[in-house]
Each structure stands twice: as C-alpha cells, then as structure tokens.
Amino acid sequence: MNFKFANRVLDIGTEKAFQVLAKCRELEREGKDIIHLQIGEPDFNTPKNIIDKGKWALDHGYTHYTQNVGLIELREAIVDYTKNYKNINTNINEIAVVPGGKPIMFYTIMALVEKGDEVIYPNPGYPIYESLIRFAGGTPVPMPLIEENDFRVDIDDLRTKINKNTKMIILNSPANPTGGILTKEDIEKTAEIIKDKEIYVLSDEIYDRLVYNKTVPFSIASIPYMKDKTIILNGFSKTYAMTGWRIGYGIMHENLIEKIDRMIANVTSNTSAVAQVAAIEALRGPQDEVDKMREEFKIRRDLIVDGLNSIDGISCKKPEGAFYVFPNIEKLGLKSEELSDYLLKEANVAVLDGASFGEYGEGHLRLSYATSQENIKKAIDRIDKAVKRINI
Ligand SMILES: Cc1ncc(COP(=O)(O)O)c(C=O)c1O
Q: Which residue ranges does the record assign to the Aminotransferase class I/classII large domain (predicted)?
C-alpha cells in the first residue's frame, strides 16, 4: 500500500547494527556459521540477583502503572548511586526513568531542539544522535573525533563550530563506536567555551562503568555551573547486561523533567514496573558481577587488539572504555562498507563499517568484543585469511 507519509518520517535514520543482524539471520538460515562482532550488547546474562528480584516483583503486585517518571524508590537509588559513584548531587525530582537510555535522547532533543537550532554531535558517534537532531528539525553539526587525537574532542575545532544558533552539544564518554574517553581537561575546556551561553549538553554516560584504567569517567555535570544545563543519560543495559529489560534514565533540571514527564504520559505512561524493581536491585545489590564482566571485557579487549594488529593492513589503538574497537583499515584500500560486506560474505564475520557512524568514521571498522574469547580468536583468524585474499 502506498502510504502518504508525514514528511517527518521520510528520512528517519536507524542503526546499521539492526540491518546487519537481519542480514546475518538470512545467512544463518542458509546454514552459514556467522561470528557476531556487530552487536552492541553484553553477551552475559543479567546477574541472578537482579533476575530473582524481577520474578519477586511479578509475585508481589508490581504489575500496575507507576509514576510517569518512575518509582520513587528507584529514583532514590539513582540519587544515591550518582552521589556514590560520580560524586554528583541530585534529587528525585531531577530524574526520569524511561525504557532504555535511548528515549532520553528522543525526549530531550524533542523538548529542546527545533528548526534553526544547531546541535554539535560526535562523529563518528552513535547514529541515533544525528537521526534525532534531524527528526526534531534541527541541524546536525559534526564534531570530528579522529584517531590522531585518540578519538577525543578537538577543542579548537569545537570553538569554531559554536555560534548563536548552537542549542546543544552531545558528549559521549566512554564512546560508541571508538571506545575513546574524554579527559577531565577536555570536558573542562568544553564547559569553559559554553560557560556564559544558553547551550545545553546531553552527556551520554551509558558506558560509565566500562572503563579499564580504574578511573571514574569525568562528567560535565560535576562542574557546578554546568549542572543545570546538562542532561545525563544513563541506564542499565550495558553495565548490568539488561538490554532486553528496557530501562534507563536521565538526570536533568526539574523544569525540563516537567516536560519529559508529560511526554512520557503521551507515549509509554511509564517504564515496566518489573524492570524498575529489578533496577533497584541492580543499583543497591552486590556489584561483583559488574566487576567480573568488566574484567572479562578487558581480557577480550587485549585479545582483539593484539589480534587485529597482527593482521597486515590493519592497525588498532587500544581503547580505554566501552566494549568496542575501531581499527584503521585504510591500508587495505577498500571503503569501510565494502570491507564489512566482504568480511560478512567471505569470512562469515559480522562487523560494522566506520562510515555508518558518520563520515569521520570512514577508514575504520567497528568490532564489538561482547562475545567469547573463543569467538574472538576464530574471528581474527577468519579476518586474517580473508584480508590476505584481497588484492592490494
Ligand atoms: C552510546 C549509546 N548510548 C545509548 C545507547 C542506548 O542504550 P539502551 O539500550 O539502554 O537504550 C547505546 C546502545 O547501544 C549506546 O551505544
């Protein structure tokens, strides 16, 4: 049927990862044994104490609506967690619980950005940022995060991008797809540039527990004059292996919460009560599973980085956060999309092309190491053999 679609949905973006997954499923139906390095979710199960609490919630009446912005007990747990882990003071009126980290992007961009507004966003970066800026009618302005600069913000470049139309800057540290981390100095300098301007910051901190150098990533909201202008996006998907539960949250000024509260009332009413109760357990319960997962990710990171660097034509920096590597493939002489298609067909290894994270991601692939050490070793071997067959 030929729908007469509203203009706003004609060009809405998506995530390549879901498209590649669909392709993989077709190949798997034909009997191919695909190694999945395209995925952006932990391969671990949710820790047992959290699952048990979810079951408990079902048995104890958590089968009803909750407040739009989430249960008070969960928001209290988020307040305590944010104080204890990040040393940021907040309160329950500054928190909105939503189904995943992603809706915080949607709600806050929709609430703040309109036609004529420019939003500076990380490129390469999580593709949904650019998609939502456009969806809201704003103009996306890429902030290049390049390898020579360890995928960090180039402050001089950022300064040139800010003008009277700039409404928001999006930061993401540790980052998808590069695994890069912004230093405290990067963030302080960014804040300094916008100190006296009405520019908001969406700080995507969803990978804040996945850091391998034992530091707590610095949040721009820790700078007192930035607190009111910052929206922290965080959640449970990555830290607690809870992608399928769909729960995350935003921390922002209560005047903005008021609008988000109404938007939630218009869309989902609330986040699943069961997921909310389980999330309280995630924050208040033992954290040893989180530590174990991080230790395992670190071993895998080292394995995949060493493996990629042993392949002729590929070089890979060692990232300090998240569970992705972003190797340079320029020497192979193929565009990143050609190479990722080739690897899927010829090596049965699914990866994402760097260009699908923005034009500054060209020349790279994104590989997720959220898979077993055995799969990583097998994938490296397959990639090595397939790359040797490319005529360069
Ligand atoms: C940078 C970044 N932010 C947010 C999200 C969304 O997380 P959630 O699944 O909780 O919506 C992702 C998921 O891949 C991500 O990589």
A: 32-383
